[in-house]
Amino acid sequence: MKNILITGANGFIGKNLTASFKELKDKKLFLYDIEDSLETLKEYVASADIIFHLAGINRPKEDSEFITGNLGSLEKVINFCECNDKKIPIVLTSSIQADYDNPYGQSKKQAEEALVSYGMRNEVKVYVYRLKNVFGKWCRPNYNSGISTFTHNIANDIPITISNRENVVNLVYIDDIIDEFTHILDRQNVDIEKYYHEIAITYSKTLGEIVDTLNKIKDSRNDLIILDMENGFEKKLYSTFLSYLPKDKFSYDLKMNVDNRGSFTEFIRTENKGQVSVNISKPGITKGNHWHHTKTEKFLVVSGKGAIRFRDINSDEIIEYLVSGDKLEVVDIPPGYTHNISNLGEADMVTVMWANEKFDPEKPDTFFLEV
Which end of the chain is less congested by CB atoms within 10 angstroms, N or C? Predict the structure, then answer.
C-alpha cells in the first residue's frame, strides 16, 4: 500500500486530486488542510510514502502572509520529514508567477528553492510544477482564477468586464494535472536530479476567445448547437461551464412541434456531425413519405412498435422493417428512397432520429412522395 498525504486537500486542486485518488486501489489517503493541527500534520508525514503539497495562499490580507502560507507551510512539511529521517518524495504546486517580481511570485520561488534543496541534500525525488491558470470544476470564482469567474458569471447571467479581448491567457485543465500526478505514483525509473516538471497539455487563448466560447456554450441551450468536442479545450470548457450552473438550471426546455399526429422535437445540433431529434407518433399515425438527395438518417424506436417502409423512387418495390422498443435496432435511411414510419401499436411510439446534417431551411433536401 502507498500512503499518500495531500496538504491543501480542501482546495480546488486538492478536492479534485482527492476524489481521483479515492478511486485508486491499495492507496491510503491522509488529508490535511489549514484547520488541522500541526500535530496532525506531523503524524501524517510520519506515515506518508509520498506528499502532494498543494497548500498555499494567494489572497492574504497582508503581503507578509505570502511567505507564511507558501514558503512556511512547505518548510513545516520538510522539517517533519527530516526530523523523522524519512526521505519522502514531495510534489509541489507552484505557479508561473514564480518568475515575477511580486510578493506572491517571490514566495512561490522561495518555496521551489526550499524543495529543491530538500531533494538535493536528502537525495530524494521532488517535483516542482509551475502551474498555469488552472480551470475546471470546483474552482472558486472571484478568487484566483479569471476563467472560473468568467464561467461562473456567464452561467449565472452576471455581467462580465474584459479590459482587453486580445490579452493571452495560458491555461491548464484540472484533469490533465490529476492525470500527471496519478502517473507519478507508478513511475519506477526517475531522474532524481530533474526537479522541474510540466503538465503536457496546455492551452493559450485570448480573453476574447474564452468569453466567446463560453457564450456559445450558454447559447447552445437555445440554438441546440453543440461545440466541437474533438477540440480538447472546448470540450473541457463545456464541462467546466456545466459545473457552474445554478442548481435550479440544470434542465432546459426544448421546442416541441406538436400536432394531432404527435410531436417532433430537435434535441442536438452540430456544425459538422448532424443533428438528433425525437419523434413521437400517436397510434395509427404514419409520418414521413419523403426522400432526400444527399441527406441520410438513422431511426431508432425506443418505445412502442411500428414499421419503417422504403421504396426506391425509381421502383415499385416496398421494403418493410418491423421495429420495436423491445429490441433496439437502428434503421439507416439511404438517399434516393422515399420512406415513412408507422405506429402499429396502441401506445405512443418514440423514435430517436439522427440526420447527417443539421436542418437548413434554405436547402431542406426533402421531397414529398408516397411510399
Answer: N
